[in-house]
UniProtKB/TrEMBL annotation:
An annotated Gene Ontology molecular function: pyridoxal phosphate binding
Gene3D superfamilies, per database record: Aspartate Aminotransferase, domain 1, Type I PLP-dependent aspartate aminotransferase-like (Major domain)
Keywords from the UniProt entry: Aminotransferase, Pyridoxal phosphate, Transferase
Name used for this protein in its record: PLP-dependent aminotransferase family protein
Cofactor: pyridoxal 5'-phosphate
Record-annotated membrane-spanning stretches: none
Domain of life, source organism: Bacteria
InterPro entries hit by this protein: Aminotransferase_I/II_large, Class-I_PLP-dep_aminotransf, PyrdxlP-dep_Trfase, PyrdxlP-dep_Trfase_major, PyrdxlP-dep_Trfase_small
Domain Aminotransferase class I/classII large: 51-394
Length: 401
């Protein structure tokens, strides 16, 4: 028998790897490339808004001026200085010694989990959670304990407090305070304060995923993240993917200084360096002072797309559906009456109307069905006319159901 004809059940895989199934996102990446599909499914930024000219100039400068641009390199101090300045705009005071550069936020989440979690230990998650984070947990076979994060009422802090009071000691709590994926919601200030208070009281680290925190749409900006309230128990994860471009694969974490060398050591075992060249491109772009204008443009365009989506939902969705109104991020979460199954609806939506969304089950913990009557819609990737048409089609599917 040749290697290529070995079926996966015969592969000598670790037990957790044997249980792996293709992710909903991988499946969807295939589906949305079919001609004629209107997709509100994935969290992709708008490609036409990438700062290609500024990036091309930055790349040319880096290649012309820096001999080491294509070499292995130690971590880039000036980029960490730029991150410190960006964090200050986000309301966080930190120093370069607390900033660690990563290959996107995803790697930040992965490395922190590897440092914090013993195999088989408990982690605390919200009951609607970014599917990519559950993938990070898979190799650890962690026990996943959940706390309710409701689209209307927010994070169930009473539930969280009683879990901790009952003696549960999770390795960490993973959360998003702004532009939640998939809910699109943000935590109120008093919830942030109470959550950080609980983390301190029970010495429970919080991994704060702020992949969308710099994309905010209301006057006065977003509230400060959890990291602004505590530098010891909150480990912050940020990214240039949504504000510049995901293909750069540059992100960062802000952690207590004593964690940094450990992060560096586990990262080295994984990919040695964050891509030296794209790091330098990002740095050169930031040094050219173009980020602020770019962010203003992005926020303006995404605000327009969000408003278009919300108006279209009012017009086309049947009674009984409700949805969130995000102030940050890229997603709106729609809830249908309990008992609806949006995985079944997705198949029908693709077949009859060629419209795509991500079904709630993709965000349920351990494949649980508590989110199955919800669906996630993205508003950053399509222009307003396509958003309008996609929602019109979605409305037709929902009314027929
Ligand atoms: C909530 C959340 N965290 C992290 C990531 C990973 O982002 P990055 O491209 O920076 O690795 C994503 C990507 O969509 C995300 O939605």
């Amino acid at each position: 028998m040749t290697a290529s004809s070995t079926s996966s059940s015969e592969l000598p895989l670790a037990s957790w790897a044997r249980r792996l199934a293709p992710s909903a996102i991988q499946d969807m990446l295939q589906i949305i490339t079919r001609p004629g599909v209107f997709s509100l499914a994935l969290g992709l930024p708008a490609a036409e808004l990438f700062p290609t000219e500024g990036m091309a100039e930055a790349a040319a400068r880096v290649l012309a001026e820096q001999v080491g641009a294509l070499q292995y390199s130690p971590t880039l101090e000036p980029l960490r200085e730029q991150v410190v300045a960006l964090m200050a705009k986000r309301g966080v005071r930190c120093s370069t010694s607390q900033v660690f550069l990563t290959t996107g936020a995803q790697q930040g989440l992965n490395l922190l989990t590897r440092l914090l979690l013993e195999p088989g230990q408990t982690v605390l998650l919200e009951d609607r959670v970014y599917s990519g984070f559950q993938q990070v947990l898979d190799p650890f076979q962690a026990r996943r304990l959940t706390v309710r994060r409701d689209a209307r009422t927010g994070l169930d802090l009473d539930g969280l407090a009683s879990l901790l009071a009952s003696g549960e000691r999770p390795a960490f709590f993973y959360t998003m305070s702004d532009g939640h994926n998939p809910l699109g919601t943000s935590l109120a200030m008093d919830a942030r304060e109470r959550l950080v208070g609980l983390a301190r009281e029970y010495r429970m680290p919080i991994i704060e995923d702020d992949a969308y925190g710099l994309l905010h749409y209301e006057e006065g900006g977003a509230l400060p993240p959890l990291r602004s309230l505590d530098a010891q128990w909150v480990y912050y994860v940020g990214s240039f993917s949504k504000i510049l471009a995901p293909a750069l694969r540059v992100g960062w974490v802000v952690v207590p200084e004593s964690l940094v060398f450990r992060l560096a050591t586990v990262k080295e075992s994984s990919d040695i360096d964050t891509a030296t060249f794209t790091q330098r491109m990002v740095l050169s772009f930031l040094q050219s002072g173009k980020l602020e204008a770019h962010l203003t443009r992005l926020r303006g365009e995404y605000r327009l797309r969000r408003d278009t989506l919300l108006r279209a939902l009012e017009t086309h969705l049947p009674a009984g559906a409700s949805w969130t109104k995000p102030t940050s991020g890229m997603f709106v979460w729609v809830e249908l009456p309990e008992g609806s199954d949006t995985t079944v609806l997705l198949a029908r939506a693709l077949e009859t109307q060629q419209v795509a969304f991500l079904p709630g089950q993709a965000f349920g913990v351990s494949g649980g069905r508590s989110a199955s009557h919800g669906l996630r819609l993205n508003f950053s990737n399509c222009d307003p006319a396509r958003i309008e048409e996609a929602v019109r089609r979605l409305g037709t599917v929902l009314r027929a159901a």
